[in-house]
Amino acid sequence: MKKLLMFGWLLLCTVSSAFAQTHIVKGKVTDAATGEPLVMVSVQLKGTTTGTQTDAAGNFSINVPHPQGVLTFTYMGYEALARNIEGNTSLSIAMTKDNKQLDEVVVIGYGEVKKRDLTGSVVSVKGAELKKVPATNVMESVQGKLPGVDITKSSGASGAKINVTVRGNRSIRADNGPLYIVDGVQYQNIQDINPGDIQSMEVLKDASSTAIYGSRGANGVIIITTRKGATGKPKVNLNTYVGSNEVAGYPSMMTGPQYVALKREAYHTTGRWNTEADDALIFNAAEVNAIQNNLWTNYADLLIHKGLQQDYQVGVTGGSDKTKVYFSLDYFDEKGLFKLDRTRRYSARLNIDQTISSILKVGMQSQLTYYDQDARRDPLNQANKIVPLNGPYDADGNFVLFPNNGSAINPLADEQPNIYQNNSRITRTFINAYVELTPLKGLSLRSNLGVTLDNARQGIFAAKNSIDRSTASTSRSQYNTGAQRYLSWENVANYSHQFGHHTIGITGVASLLSDQRDSGFLQGEGQLLPSQLYYALANSVSGIAVRTNYLSSKLISFTGRVNYNYKGKYLLSLTGRSDGSSKLAPGNKWAFFPSAALAWRISDESFMHGQSVFSDLKLRASYGVAGNDAVSPYSTASYLSKIPFSYDDTNAALAYAIGSQIGNKNLKWELSATTDIGLDFSILNGRVGANIDYYDTHTKDLLLQRTLPSSSGVSTVIQNIGKTRNRGIEIGMNTTNISTGKFTWTSNIVFSKNKEEIVALADASTNDVANGWFIGYPVKVYYDYQKLGIWQTDEATEAAKFGYKAGDIKVKDLNGDGALNSQDRKVLGKQVPAWSGGFNNDIRFAHFDLNIYVFARIGQYIYSEYAAKFDPQGLENSAPLDYWTPEHASNEYPRPNASVSKDGTPFIKTLGYKDGSFVKIRNISLGYTLPAGALKAVHLSNVRVYVTGKNLFTFSKVKDYDPERGGDLSNPLTKMYVAGLNVEF
């Protein structure tokens, strides 16, 4: 029996050993072009977890359970490869470099080029990246992700404006915002475009790239291409999210006891208050009662609520070989932090491309957008200054219009029924139709006709018990209307031809742009019924006013561009554009804007084939001139204004005088010349890629509004005076930190540093102190006395030399003349950052994806309304500040003094200047994509659910406040928590 068991055991081991035998496959992996071995290539047996990597010589060895199967080879920067084993024990693998990224098509002005053939400074962002940060305005979602582009949010109100500048402020008075091109046509209202409709976004920054847009591209160009239809079975995309908004940080004013202590100290300074028995001398009866019963209110807490943001979008893509259609509908709704603050946007988009024949194609891109927006007059200014004693309601819960029996109205007044309404309704229709003819190989002729129709009306009603009308005896109603018709007609010819190693592309453009606007303003006071709001203004009893306005301008342009390519290594681009603007003076209406750019693809040279450091290397250089005509139409003409005139005590007559601004018959173009040197490279087989640019922009003949002496009889004139300069460096870097079968981690790093300065104003050495413009400094700076602290008791003798005493603000005597006057002021700080940057991380593991995005803006100064919220008399509330008293030697704020008003306190403005640098975690998103196999049964191709935290944490020296928007206390910025769903079927 034992022998039988032993035999069985040996037999089992033999069989098991037979099944356990493995097949060893060895081989070598090399570069298909150079033959060089590739190190750490991932070798995987398909459908299993069995895998290995190549060694320093490119060799590998892998044990597989069967001589049949498939090995997959993956390596960063190379195309993935699969090879059947088919019983082989030795394999020779040659991998080809993956040039998909370089072959990506990038949209430029009036055309497209491969990324490898770019000669200018252009950043491209795909639609998937734009949807990572839920936002009202698509530009907010790329904040900190575009080198050289500074993006900030103006406020936390619903539908708030986004501020965008490209490579600094060139102009002092004229607009510095970029030109937006949507599907080839200028479109000013970028907030209308839903991120789900965007295929790609390109940012053109250097003069070579923007010169083809001439005067319109002086401040950079942002090109948006919306989604198009596609051949095949229709696809439906459903994107929706819901998010809860809350204030990102808001500092508190003084509590009731803190305010009482301040006011007591203010009157203690004058000798009127000594003990609590003297409270009746400085507080009214209602306030004394509130003090005794500890009744006080933080009005900001009552005004600020949680908001709500939601978006629902459906898009349909489909078509045949000849007809391609994209259609989408979108509903966006945002409730702000305040009651009466809400924005609703309804939009529809229809893009059609129709092939008529082999040489004729027509199409249309169209969008209809409708806004229904309720805006709130900022209540926080009133909430922050009203005396906090007592409360907004009496003991019976009735609303109290004037708490404390004073003249300050209740900050909650506008929220009461039939008191306040500010409603805007805007309808914008955008249609861009085109005809494209390709009569010969390489030649295309295209005509675009774009029309934007913008109609808006705003109605404002403020009852006599509203914040705005608290000192008036009647209500006021306003009814504002506006209409714009923007017409763009452009005819574009493109020709490309390749002969031998030479490739040439020629573009010609002729365009006409027409902008017509009219507006109306109606006002009346004393509406009969509050329910009439801003209607039936003819029934108003007083204050009836009527104004209308009309503006019209045209721009005619002729453009030519030549792109030359030799062997794909040597690239040349030459552009010339001539613009004629109706806004400028006769004889100066036309200007010519040239540019040139060169690029050398060093990595394609034969001497680079043997190296393994750079997988791509390109050097770029460009120079170009762009213009700006960003002044109001008719700035060259003087105008008349009606003035009251009476030639005796009883008789009056109509009279007119020259308006406050006199026309300038010599007005001409503002010109900006930019030099750009750039380097594009990737190393470690594409694992690290970077774009580095240095630029230098000189702007002259600034369109500047100049103040004239009163003896001239007019106030201002717009002239071509002054110069500015912007120079800086931009770095954009993409890295693949980890890449395995299931786990990838990629990063995007952006760094921008811009030095902005005024070079000359009326002359090369004279500052304009009245307007705050200083040669050698940026356009926007803070100019004031330098605060050193507070004069202390032991410094009383020294303070007296300057005419001050202990407890007063101490500032620096800059010129050392023993006196403190306007000559001791200096530039304290600039409102633009010294540098800004972003750090974006995308992590994927199996079906999960994680995005963490950090944004920084360093070196900027802000004027903090909170830091300056100090009333030395105690007439209004203040921030809980560390003020000086004889018993408390503070160096922060002066001694309260009931005999000195806030405006009369020496150097009071110096209290508000603060370092506004910040770092914030802009976005954290976690998503899960359902496995494809689980979706087949319900006929879905993709389902992704995600949660996002937006603007979650801000790190700065400014406590309880997000300094991104500056130092204003109105409409604070928000943070948002979002849950979203993406479905495709």
From TrEMBL:
InterPro entries named in the record: Beta-barrel_TonB, Beta-barrel_TonB_sf, CarboxyPept-like_regulatory, Plug_dom, Plug_dom_sf, TonB-dep_OMP_SusC/RagA, TonB-dep_OMP_SusC/RagA_CS, TonB-dep_rcpt-like
Cleavable signal peptide: 1-20
Membrane topology: Multi-pass membrane protein
One Pfam family from the record: CarbopepD_reg_2
SUPFAM superfamilies named in the record: Carboxypeptidase regulatory domain-like, Porins
Domain TonB-dependent receptor plug: 114-221
Alphabetic keyword roster: Cell outer membrane, Membrane, Receptor, Signal, TonB box, Transmembrane, Transmembrane beta strand, Transport
Chief localisation class: membrane
Domain TonB-dependent receptor-like beta-barrel per the UniProt entry, residue ranges: 390-952
GO terms under cellular component: cell outer membrane
Localisation: Cell outer membrane
Family: Belongs to the TonB-dependent receptor family.
NCBIfam families documented for this protein: OMP_RagA_SusC, SusC_RagA_signa
Protein name (record): TonB-dependent receptor
Organism lineage: Bacteria, Pseudomonadati, Bacteroidota, Chitinophagia, Chitinophagales
